[in-house]
Amino acid sequence: MLLNQLVEINEKGSIASSVNFGMLDDLEKNLPLCESFIFNYDSTKPELSTVGILDAVRRSYHSPNQPNIHLMIQQYGKGKSHFAIAVANFFKKPFHSQEVQGILSQVEKATSAKNQAISEGLKLFKQNQRHQHLVICLSGDIGGDIRKQFLQQLVKSLEAAGIQDSLAHHICSEPLRYLETLNPENRTKAEKYLQSNGNPDGDLNSLIRLLRENNSDVISSVKKIAFKITGFTPDFTADINIQAILEDLIKNHCIGENAHFQGILILFDELNQYLKAWAADDIGAGGTALQNITNICENYKGKIALLSFTQIHPAQGVGISANVILEYQKIATRLAPKDGTTYNPASSLELVIENLLLVKNASTWQTFSSQWHNTLRREAETAFERRIKIYKKKGWSFEEFYTHLSEGCFPLHPLTAYLLCNLDFTQDRTAIQFIKGDVKNFIATQPVENAGKANYIYPIALYQFYMKLHIIEKTNSIN
After folding, report:
1. Which DSSP string corresponds to 90-146?
2. What angle do CA 177, 183, 184 make, to 5 degrees?
3. How confident is the model over 444-458, as pLDDT tens digits?
4. CA dist 367 to 3, 4, 61, 112, 445, Å?
C-alpha cells in the first residue's frame, strides 16, 4: 500500500502574512484566505484552539446567558489577522458561499479525528440561519478617531446589504444642531452664501427642514456654510453616539419578522495599538467609543458580540503612562470581563504541520494503526524521553507529544517533525514548503513500509531540503 492511500496533504492550507481587513473587499485575496486558514482543535482545551474560539463566538448568539465579549491574545506573525478574516466571512457570508464552504472544509480537517460534533454544529448554525450577521471590522493600527472608522465600516456594510438611510438621523443631528444654533449675524452670512450659489437645496430654513427629515444629502452644503462663516470645515461625525446607533440597528434590523440580520459582530484587530493611542489622547482616539460598544454587548446579549485581537493582555498596561493607568484599567476590564472569554490559542508550528498532514481514509488508517501502533509509540517514546527534552520543559505530556509529533505527523519521524518546528532558521512558510514539496512527493511515490519497517521521513531529508533551498537562494542572489 502506498502512503498516498493512507495520508494526504492539506493542499489549500497555508499561513498568510501581512493580512488586514482591507482584503475582505478584494475578491482575489479574500476567497483564498478563507480556504487556506489552518484551524486547530483540542477537545480538552477548546479555548486554546481556533475552532474552539469560532464556536464560542457562535454560542454568543445562542443564548443571552452566553458570554459575548471575547479577546484573543497571540503574538505577531501567528495568524491572528488571517483568522479574523475567516471569522468575518463565516458570519457575514451565506452557507452556500465559497468562502463559508472553504472555512467549514478546514474546520472539518482540524476536527475529523477528534470531535466531529463541533464541526457539525458550526455547519448546522450556518445552514439554519434566516439571515447573515452584520459584521463591522475595526483596526487599531489605522489611527485617529475610532468613531469615524466605525461609521465608515458600518455604512459600507449596510450598503452592501442594500440598506439605505438607516443611519440618517444619527448623521443629520449634528449638522442640524449647528444650523439651529447660528446667531443672527451668522444666519445672515449663511443666507447670503446660499443665495450666491443659487440655493440648490433651498434657503436656510429649507436646509433645516431637510435635516429634520433625515436627508443626509444636504450635509455637504452645511459644511460649506460653516467654512464660509468660520474658515474651517467641521467634522460632524466627531460626536456620533455609537451606543445609540448600535441599539437602533439591533431593534430595527436584528429583531422581529422584518429583521435583516441575525445579529451584529464587531471584530477589532490590533486592539493593543488602539489602546496605546487612547491612553495618549483619549478624545482624539474616540473618547468613550469602546465603553459604548461594551455597554451594548452587556445590554443585548444574544444579539451582538465583540471579538478583539491583541498581542498582550490589555490589563498588563505595557507602555501606558502612570497618569492614566487607572482610567486605562477600567477600559481593559471591560474588554476582558470576568464573564467574558479570553483566549490564548496555541499557535505552534507543531499544530500547523499536524493539520497539513491528514488521514485520507479512516478505515485504512485503522488497519495501519493496528499493525504499526506499537512502532509509532516506541519511536515517539525514544524521541520524547531520550532525544528531545524541550517538550517536557514546556509542560507537554507524552500523549500530547505522541498525538502532535508522531501519529499526527506521520510519515514524518518524530525527530524530523521536531527539527522542522524548532530549528532557528525554520519559518512557518518554509516548513509548509517542505510539506507541500518533498513530503508530498514522498507520499505519492513511497509505500507505507520499507524492508519490514514503517517508512518514515528521517531528518536527513530535511537536511537535503535546506541544502537545496540554500543553493537556490545563493544562485538567485548571484543572478
Report:
1. HHHS-TTSHHHHHHHHHHHHHHTTT-HHHHHHHHHHHHT-SS--EEEEEETTS-S-H
2. 130
3. 999 999 999 999 999
4. 13, 15, 42, 17, 20
- For the range 318-326, what are the long-range contacts, defined as Cβ-Cβ under 8 Å and sequence gap of 24 or more? 319/276, 320/275, 320/276, 320/279, 321/279, 321/280, 324/279, 324/282
Strand partners, 305: 265
What span, in angstroms and rounded, lies between the C-alpha atoms of 261 and 282?
32
- Provide the residue range defining the domain that includes 214: 168-230
228-283 pLDDT tens trace: 888 888 877 767 889 999 999 999 999 988 899 999 999 999 999 999 999 999 88
Residue listed under C-alpha cell 453616539: 241
* Distances, alpha carbon 250 to alpha carbons 65, 66, 239, 244, 263, in Å: 18, 18, 21, 10, 7
Q: Is the CB of residue 142 less than 8 Å from the CB of residue 277?
A: no
Q: State how many domains the chain has.
A: 3
Candidates 350, 266, 258, 346; CA nearest to 300 is 266
All three cell numbers of 148: 469615524
Domain stops at, among 315, 343, 371: 343
